[in-house]
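so my prof wants the structure for this chain in the tokens format not the other one, which i didnt know existed until like an hour ago. anyway here's the sequence
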Amino acid sequence: LAVGPVLAFWFDFLEWLLPGRRKRAIAARTALDQSLQVPFCISMIFALSSLAEGHGLDYCRKKIDDKLFDTWRNCLVVFVPAQVINQGLVPLKYRVLFQAIISFFWDTYLSIVSHSVTAAPILAPPPLLPL
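here's what i got, hopefully its the right format
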């Protein structure tokens, strides 16, 4: 519930800032998305879920400090390709829906990471197919 409105505003802002379907605009929107919005949303999810579980702000800060970087790095493996498709092929009015479908599976992973004792396991990118 918290991420949807943020994404709706964010995608509108990105499209306003860097309009079009040219490769440069798609790459720039994807880079801004992954470098600014993603760490913010991962931190927000870790904090809100921890607060909902009854933990305090110190716990939230520690969880973010301990898990944000590895989780963000893993997110890049999933969401860079997804965002290139989203920003390049999906009409603006459907981008939040596309993101929500991908996020359904990502949120399962986030829940596992959020509740694990150790840092996020590192996801390996898929192997390249031989030409």
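also thought this was worth mentioning. The two ends are 43 Å apart (CA to CA).
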